[in-house]
Amino acid sequence: MKKYSFLLLYLILVSCENDDYILLNDEIDNTSFSKAPSGPTGLDKQILDDLENISGGVGVSFFILPESNQYSNIPQDPLNPITPEKVALGKLLFHETATGGNPTTPSNLFTYSCASCHHAAAGFGAGIRQGIGEAGIGFGTNGEGRVFNPNIPTVDADIQPIRSPTVLNVAYQDIMLWNGQFGGSGTNLGTEANWTNIPENFIGFEGVEVQAIKGQGVHRLLVDDSFVTSFGYKQMFDDAFPNSAMSERYSTTNAALAIAAYERTILPNQSPWQQWLNGNYSLLSNNEKKGAKAFFGKGKCYQCHTGPALNDKNFYAFGMGDFDNTSEAFVLDQSGFENVKKGRGGFTKVTTDDYKFKTPTLYNLIDNGVYGHGGTFTSVREVIEYKIEGVPENTEVPTENLAEQFGDIKLNKTEIDNLVLFIENSLRDPNLSRYVPLTINSGNCFPNNDSASRIDLGCD
Known about the structure:
Elements: H1 2-30, H2 42-54, H3 84-95, E1 136-137, E2 147-148, H4 199-203, H5 207-218, H6 225-230, H7 234-240, H8 246-249, H9 252-264, H10 272-277, H11 286-295, E3 315-316, H12 334-341, H13 344-348, E4 357-358, H14 365-368, H15 380-389, H16 413-426, H17 451-456
Antiparallel strand pairs: 1-2, 3-4
């Protein structure tokens, strides 16, 4: 009897072990064989303490980006709530080269798009010092091969007078452009006297929406009834804007609202740093963690680069150079460029704002390849060393306007190395292609559709 009891007990134990084994394998399948996150090390704990202090006790959640489909957690314009239908439409319109329907030179028809200067390959920047819409040719690998078409009159070119900022994390900005002139709420309240030719500010739209509206005119894009019908976008507009009157539904404004809704979802939430914040501590090397310590400590980066997007809504002068001090750049409107050079002050007309520019996000910087509002730097390291040295490139900047951190940062070479590693590696989302459509309704090549770009992009 004892023999049979022992055998029964053995079978039960084996059965339990097999059940556990099956459960374990089910769990592995559900996690795609990902390695279970390890707990925080001593260095991790130091960073966590730093984040706790910097955020006023909020902790890591203060720095975490939401998932791109968690619309309720993404900052949005109350006048333009994010919906799946708007995002789907905006994703296509943003990349659609058939929106390039109002060129100055007819041969440039349907050759450019929003994404010509803001494409995923360059971290949603341009990948060159001055973004080129109309009259640009070529693409290269990440946009670095786009150049001005010498056969087009210079005055007909759409060349940016300042480096094209990334679209990443625009949800965390209530005003847009380096000088912040677009946006009729929040930060821009009190600047109404300077809203000349920006009627959308008076409506109360936030900056992302205003830029999407104004940008279509400035960059010679055209979305109207003819475009919607010709390129098969009617149903998508109907789905995205069912409450708009038919007479207003297929409009520049609604196109802009869809583009803005899409732009707000472009979040680098798959970067190693974001995954570290969510508890996957093994995804950063020890040197990257030391770089994070420098970022949130001695490097003083956090004083301007904070929150989920690592950018505040303030403006600072670091004396960086402009396009007009080099023969390698185009300055098409010298009189207007004087305001561009003055940054926030060029918009507000307040002298203490002169030469101050909006804090950029730091995600996917390495993909863009040019840095500073004037594109005068070619590496992250150059920018860090420039800020440490504290000698302004632009001698026009009044000393009293320079940021207090300029020249007041003390890091040794090893700390700089680690800081560069953190910014270049930890803050880089490797999968931004998820925000790019496989095709666009027109069937055109994108983000550019000129003959040289079609070859570079493999469209021919």
